[in-house]
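Milestone M4 deliverable, item 7.
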Amino acid sequence: MLEIGIDSFGQLVLNREGETLPAYPVRAFPVTAPEKCIALMSQEGKLLAWIEEISSLPEDRQKILRDALRSREFMPEISRLESVSGFVSPCTWKVSTDRGETSFTLASEDDIRRINSATLIVSDRHGVNYLLRPEKLDRHSRKLLARFL
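Output delivered:
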């Protein structure tokens, strides 16, 4: 059984063979399969453990792992496009995300990348990536997005 926990500094650790090792989680497929294929890596970048599926862990360890992943990753999901400053790049998008409202500059239409038929990644001028699932958007947002696709 995989023994993971949080140390006194709030960092993820792996307990293995009587040794406590600092670890950090990395998703193999963060967009298409975020709950599967998680690597626990050492500070030196070596694989310490492999988790096929988060749900295979006991609930308390699932929470620890999900919290560790959430603290390491930053990819807000756009839930609504409030407005765009224009339909020619560069332009400013005002959006609502799962982490609050924000605005960013889209430098080029090339910064909207299709991952699969239901998922896009939008990168702002500073390299921050936003997850966008068009089928989850309201009509107004889909109409604005269609001008860029």
